[in-house]
Amino acid sequence: MKKLIATTLIFLQASCASATVWDDFSGYVSNAWNDFTGYVMSWFNDDEKPVIPGDNLPGNIAGNWDRLSGTLNDALTLRDKQETLPDSTWMPFTEDKASNGKKINELLDRALVILSGGNAGNARADAVRLRARISQLRTELDELRNNRITAPESTYMLWRKTKPKIDAEIAEKEREISRTEAEMSSINSRLTEELRGIGLELTEAQTDILLNSVTGEDILQNTIIFDNVRSVVSKLEERSQKDTNTLEITKRYTGMYLVLNDILIHTQEELIRKMDNDYKPRLSELIKDAEALRKQALRRSNDKAYTSSQRKSFALNAKSNATTIEAARLYGELIESQKSSLMKSIRALMLNRDLAENTYKTVRSSGELRGLIHSGLNAFDAVNRLSMPELKIFESGTMRAEFDEINRRLKR
């Protein structure tokens, strides 16, 4: 999942830095060599390469099948290697489970880029892009209005903007915001229809709420990835019925299915980490600050040292902060609901992954593979339904506005 938390590496010692750089460089050279030798060997092994035609696959998956399957197989190779590596090592240039696991996660993220595409994925990306554009335009509009305050009516200085010129820019910026908002509304409708097409029944209002929450983009991406993975697994099931005599190909199909399970678990675990380590602490801090301001305003609203007008303003501030706290707690409930749904789906996926891993290691027969994949398709459908929490529509316009403001502050 659409990704996720960027990690800053701090090099405390020059020797550690050198080892890390060399490890990354040697890994790059190794991967490049494997890609090259694999490409050359494919000239002589076309009959053993599982080719999956593009019919019944989303266009983005069919068009990127070689990249996707190559990435899945690379992740599978590293996954096999993981079992023989030590948990940790002090020796330079030596891999351990942590360093190898990092490479696996990088490959899973690379596969996610492909699996998050398609019609629904493209609509989601367009919606995210337009929202960012609207936010940028509003910031620029606010800056123009501030500049207008000190701008002269006319000037001989060519580099200075006059009030009439700024007024013209403000009018154009407002028109651009209106056009972009209209396009955003159209994209919302398109995205809602695309999501319904993959089995996610949302209203346009619910789609809007998801897109306007810090976790919503990732939740939608999860759903899109699930659907694309299901399409790939359906194709693997179809191919497994045809390629029944080659043990290596059967093992490869089983391994790809195993890695696809890993991808679904990985993307949801990343979102849970983001919720726990980023959004929830920031939301708690926001509630703490608002509560302190509310109490302060409430005390001063009853303090006779202030005028009646000032006390009234303090009372309004206390009420406003109470609304912020209520909206923030509602936001926290939404995040908890999403986390609970994700944890349920992860538990179900892990059970499915255990079976896939056991089958991969044994690969008794292609018949078992077909049964595994077919049952996996049913499991994916059930798990995908678990992944979407109940969405509440805000009845109060004030509460929705406060929700949007909290979301803006969390996204900063």
Write structural notes for this entry.
With 412 residues, the protein is mainly alpha-helical. The chain has a domain at 203-411: Helix Hairpins, CATH 1.10.287. 77% of the residues lie in helices and 0% in strands. Helix 8 (216-240) packs antiparallel against helix 9. The chain is elongated, with a radius of gyration of 27 Å. The two termini are 20 Å apart. The relative contact order is 0.10.
CATH architecture tag of the domain at 203-411 = Orthogonal Bundle
Structure annotation, total helices: 12
Helix content: over 70%
Average per-residue pLDDT, rounded, comes to: 75
Rg calc: 27 Å
CATH topology of the domain at 203-411: Helix Hairpins
* Terminal residue distance: 20 Å
Output the helix-strand order.
Answer: HHHHHHHHHHHH
Shape verdict: elongated
Please provide a brief summary of the model.
The protein has 412 residues and is mostly helical. It has twelve helices and no strands.
Any chance you could write out the topology, listing elements then pairs?
Blueprint: H1 14-42, H2 59-63, H3 65-82, H4 97-115, H5 118-150, H6 163-197, H7 204-211, H8 216-240, H9 247-301, H10 308-362, H11 366-386, H12 397-411
Helix pairs in contact: 3-4, 3-9, 4-9, 5-6, 5-8, 8-9, 8-11, 9-10, 10-11, 10-12
For the structure shown, list the relevant keywords.
elongated, mainly alpha, 412 residues, 12 helices, single chain, Helix Hairpins
